[in-house]
Design a protein that fits this description.
Layout: E1 2-6, H1 12-22, E2 26-32, E3 37-38, H2 45-48, E4 56-58, E5 64-66, H3 68-78, H4 92-117, H5 125-141, H6 155-165, H7 178-188, H8 191-204
Parallel strand pairs: 1-2
Antiparallel strand pairs: 1-4, 2-3, 4-5
The protein binds glutathione.
């Protein structure tokens, strides 16, 4: 069975949403991203992945896959009939990769990561200023579309949902982008999305959610 190393409400939530949407069974291991321990057995998370970051997906053959963009596409390709990614050869596959890269690099690493990792000593001013410009890209795109890619839910939506959920704790009011607010409400109406979020919100109460 697949195994997913995750931390509650971290970017690995997107992988849980994808697994739930695809109805693919997996074993979930909570990896504490601050202490680098696997909560199940206290083992060293760096032994699972030297990156020390979630998500890590352990494949059926024991190989370990990291990086949300790769993990999400792997999950989507396990169940092509679920339509969580356009098939290779379809030009929309590159649109999917375009969004996964943008969310991972420009939203996650450029803004969410520094916001949660560093105390705000003034150094967050630039990422904070830039996030408005960055988020206007999906906001404009979603003004007249239901989903990020094509006309159905894909793993790019799973990734963006996670990023948008973190805006409030990061001190950004999503209401300034009505299309993103409406999109998030729409996405959270999906049973698989609701279930994945509820599971992780419950687990979040059991762990420290910021670095010491
Ligand atoms: N590029 C990676 C980033 C993964 C990542 O930064 N995960 C965060 C949680 S959202 C983490 O585990 N951080 C711990 C650390 O960087 O030490 C991806 O897209 O999957």
């Amino acid at each position: 069975m697949l195994q997913l190393y995750f931390f509650p409400m971290a970017c690995s939530l997107a992988s849980r949403i994808a697994l739930t949407e695809a109805d693919v069974e997996a074993q979930y291991h909570l990896a504490h991203i601050w202490t680098k321990t696997v909560v199940d057995d206290g083992s060293d998370f760096l032994g699972v992945s030297p990156k020390g970051a979630v998500p890590v997906l352990v494949l059926e053959n024991g190989e370990r896959l990291t990086e949300s963009a790769a993990v999400l596409q792997y999950i989507a390709d396990l169940k092509p009939e679920a339509g969580l990614a356009p098939r290779f050869g379809d030009p929309d596959r590159y649109r999917l990769q375009e969004w996964l890269s943008f969310i991972g690099a420009e939203i996650h690493k450029a803004f969410l990561f520094p916001t949660f990792w560093y105390k705000d000593d003034g150094s967050l001013a630039k990422p904070r200023a830039r996030i408005t410009q960055t988020l206007s890209v999906p906001a404009t795109h979603l003004a007249d579309r239901e989903f990020l890619v094509g006309n159905r839910f894909t793993v790019a939506d799973a990734h963006l949902i996670w990023a948008l959920l973190l805006l409030r704790p990061a001190g950004v009011d999503i209401a300034q982008w009505p299309s993103l607010s409406a999109y998030l409400v729409r996405m959270q109406a999906r049973p698989a999305v609701r279930e994945a979020i509820a599971t992780e919100m419950a687990l979040r109460k059991t762990v420290a959610t910021s670095p010491a």
